[in-house]
Design a protein that fits this description.
Blueprint (H helix, E strand, L loop, with lengths): L8 E5 L1 H10 L6 H10 L4 E5 L9 H10 L4 E5 L3 H10 L3 E4 L19 H13 L3 E6 L3 H10 L3 E5 L1 H5 L2 H20 L3 E5 L7 H5 L4 E6 L1 H10 L1 H24 L1
Parallel strand pairs: 1-2, 1-8, 2-3, 3-4, 4-5, 5-6, 6-7, 7-8
Helix pairs in contact: 2-3, 5-6, 10-11
Bound molecules: pyridoxine-5'-phosphate.
The site of pyridoxine-5'-phosphate (PXP) has 19 residues, from strand 8 and helix 10.
Length: 254
């Protein structure tokens, strides 16, 4: 059962365990083993992105995650007929619709929920009817949030990539854009998640935002696992998130 008792959930993205595996072919390191380890370390969910080019997670990984995991699986997917069929076949806990370009190294921007509205709405409806919780990965922009609402997605995930790449005043401005978007999401009844590029150093201000209820984090933690192990990397991230959240809750009630 999903753990809903925590104020801020942590979803661990295991894609890059598969990236390392695929660099050599073969079976290891195994992203499903990483998912089980993440669960022991306190993750509330597992995220995996089945890309159209299968550059990291494979169809077999999704089969095994669905079979072996007791945590909720958040399947990241492009809005294509192929991915829709896969999601409908498996019926994961959640599906996060992301934009996908073959030439990009990672998901570089948010989904255009405004421009893609008429294509995304029937796709979201089919997923919802299958019992899958639909989330749209979008930029922190009220226009995109309103479009997500109209599409019928109950959840949005705000793209924190720009915030993570910027510095100084530009980063502060982007953080404010995320805060405003999270408030707007809550005001129109959308559950608000966030992710992309988060690290020990930049997670605090995002974790402080009270309307955000889930963070999805992958690349940095898998990299940290090389030095200190996955368990300790996840536990440290969890502690930093909880500390920031508790401090901001304290400030609001003071
Ligand atoms: N959320 C979404 C929708 C993503 O596409 C990704 C990257 O796959 C993440 C979160 C995690 O980003 P990172 O690997 O940079 O932590």
């Amino acid at each position: 059962m999903p753990n809903v008792s925590r104020p801020l959930r942590l979803g661990i993205n295991v894609d890059h365990v598969a990236t390392i595996r695929n660099a050599r072919g073969g079976d290891f390191p195994d992203p499903v083993r990483a998912a089980v380890a993440a669960q022991k370390a306190g993750a509330d969910g597992i995220t995996a992105h089945l890309r159209e080019d299968r550059r990291h997670i494979s169809d077999g990984d999704i089969d095994r995650l669905m079979r072996d995991l007791t945590l909720p699986l958040n399947l990241e997917m492009a809005a294509t007929d192929e991915m829709l069929a896969i999601a409908l076949r498996h019926g994961p806990h959640a599906a996060c619709i992301v934009p996908e370009k073959r030439e990009e190294r990672t998901t570089e921007g948010g989904l255009d929920a405004v421009g893609g509205h008429d294509r995304l709405k029937p796709l979201a409806t089919k997923l919802r009817e299958r019992g899958v919780r639909v989330s749209l990965f979008i930029e922190p922009d009220p226009v995109q949030l309103d479009a997500a609402k109209s599409i019928g997605a109950p959840v949005v995930e705000l793209h924190t990539g720009s915030y993570c790449l910027l510095n100084g005043a530009a980063r502060d401005a982007e953080l404010e854009r995320i805060r405003t978007a999270a408030r707007h999401a809550a005001s129109i009844g959308l559950e608000c998640h966030a992710g992309h590029g988060l690290t020990f150093d930049n997670v605090g201000p995002i974790a402080e935002i009270p309307e955000i209820v889930e963070l999805n984090i992958g690349h940095f933690l898998i990299g940290e696992a090389i030095f200190g192990g996955l368990d300790s990397a996840i536990r440290r991230m969890r502690a930093l998130m909880d500390k920031a959240r508790a401090a901001s809750a304290g400030e609001r009630s003071a």
